[in-house]
Write a structure and sequence with these properties.
By secondary structure, this protein is of the alpha+beta class. Helices cover 16% and strands 38% of the residues. It has a domain of 110 residues: Lipocalin (Beta Barrel). α2 runs antiparallel to α3.
Length: 409
């Protein structure tokens, strides 16, 4: 056999063996979660992480760290990196710090110009309602350690008269719902007090313009619009800031009012509809709340319950490259002892595949506030807060999407 034919023969045999190995022997088992702590557990508070993949394949994550949360003036924003080829997470570093003030709830994203954005609230008066949103932007972030921030500014959240109009349109319906519910007298009283305060503060310009905070990833949506999910613990409601000029100017949507919906996460549906899932801070039934937008996030429909249980904790929902959605959160009505991962192929109408990423006995270990991405190699990466008897830290999990559908535990 001459060299040319021998080469063709080897190539054909290789292709046949490859097909046999894939079809006859079965595809490789999907990677089950590989978990790695970014640093050892400690007594100080570490919470509210957010993870991104950088254009060069590095992973970058951030969280807030200090002796407490809003009431502790030593709280700062920290971060860590993992190399493109994997391995250990690098030593943590300070991403941002406002001396004498708590900095909390950071989030990251990379925009269409490959600029890295860090957004977080500084708490001015040790109350969530005094949060002031800040923005850091960098082109120089691929090197080790802290990105070099080229722009540092305030994100002014400016609700207009549509905020009070939305309150007047929605609050009466919520009052009727509360009156007709089977809630106990104490719950109904608390709900009415909340709705009375909502009305009172919906026309207070200072209260309206402070208190807005990030949690889940901002998104670059159709047309290059930057859409930032925000929430307010005083109003216990969500809204969005958006920019159509790469962050030079910002607009604010009307509020999404639904009886305690905060910490929105955005996912894109197959028909171009945007869907937001929000933590349930309201009365039972405890479910992730949701709403939809058909105009790229400028306006949103009515808030309603989803089928996903939620005990009043942060969750994340992302769209995978094949169009499926992946949800991660505490899929219980009480407690953060279980962190579930669900998957849907029909834009959230059904969630047939469900796994526990973490699970412990109730009232023991706590896992929460997940941040999820899918990297270019198809893997899912999630960072989340962990609290055990040993202390608290941030954990990273990596797995194949197929694990959620597989029989593997």
């Amino acid at each position: 056999m001459n060299a040319f034919l021998k080469s063709r023969w080897k190539r054909a045999v290789g292709m046949v063996l490859g097909v046999v190995g894939w079809v006859g022997l079965g595809a490789a088992e999907p990677m089950a979660p590989a978990r790695q702590d970014l640093f050892p557990p400690e007594s100080w508070h570490n919470h509210g992480s957010c993870i991104v993949e950088l254009p060069d394949g590095q992973l970058l994550t951030t969280w807030f760290h200090g002796s407490g949360e809003r009431k502790s003036d030593d709280v700062r924003i920290e971060g860590s990196r993992r190399a493109r080829r994997g391995g250990a997470w690098q030593p943590r570093f300070v991403m941002a710090d406002t001396p004498g003030y708590p900095d909390t709830n950071p989030c990251l994203f990379v925009d269409a110009q490959e600029r890295l954005w860090l957004m977080y609230p500084t708490i001015l008066a040790n109350l969530w309602e005094s949060a002031l949103m800040k923005v850091h932007i960098s082109h120089d972030y691929r090197r080790s350690g802290v990105p070099r921030w080229e722009r540092q500014e305030v994100l002014h959240v400016t609700p207009g008269p549509e905020f009070a109009a939305a309150a007047e349109a929605v609050v009466p319906a919520l009052e009727k719902e509360a009156a007709a519910s089977g809630w106990g007298a104490q719950t109904r009283r608390e709900v009415q007090e909340y709705l009375d305060a909502f009305r009172l503060y919906s026309t207070n310009k200072q209260y309206l313009r402070l208190g807005w905070m990030t949690r889940a990833h901002p998104k670059v949506v159709a047309g290059g619009r930057i859409l930032v999910p925000l929430y307010h613990d005083g109003f216990s409601t969500s809204l969005f800031s958006y920019s159509d000029d790469q962050g030079s100017t910002w607009k604010t949507t009307a509020p999404l009012i639904g009886g305690g919906n905060i910490q929105p996460s955005i996912v894109l549906g197959a028909n171009g509809t945007l869907v937001t899932y929000m933590r349930d801070n309201g009365p039972p039934p405890k479910r992730l709340l949701m709403a939809e937008s058909t105009d790229n996030g400028a306006t949103w429909g009515a808030v309603r319950d989803s089928e996903i249980p939620n005990p009043g904790s942060g969750a994340d929902v992302i769209r995978l490259r094949d169009g499926r959605w992946l949800y991660v959160g505490n899929d219980t009505e009480e407690g953060r002892h279980r962190l579930g991962v669900w998957m849907t192929a029909d834009d959230g109408r059904t969630w047939p595949h469900r796994k526990a990423l973490e699970e412990a006995a109730p009232d023991t270990d706590s896992f929460g506030y997940p941040s999820a991405i899918q990297t270019r190699n198809g893997r899912i990466h999630i960072t989340y807060s962990v609290r055990t008897k040993a202390g608290g830290n941030i954990r990273h999990a990596e797995f194949d999407p197929g694990w959620v559908e597989s029989a593997k535990p």
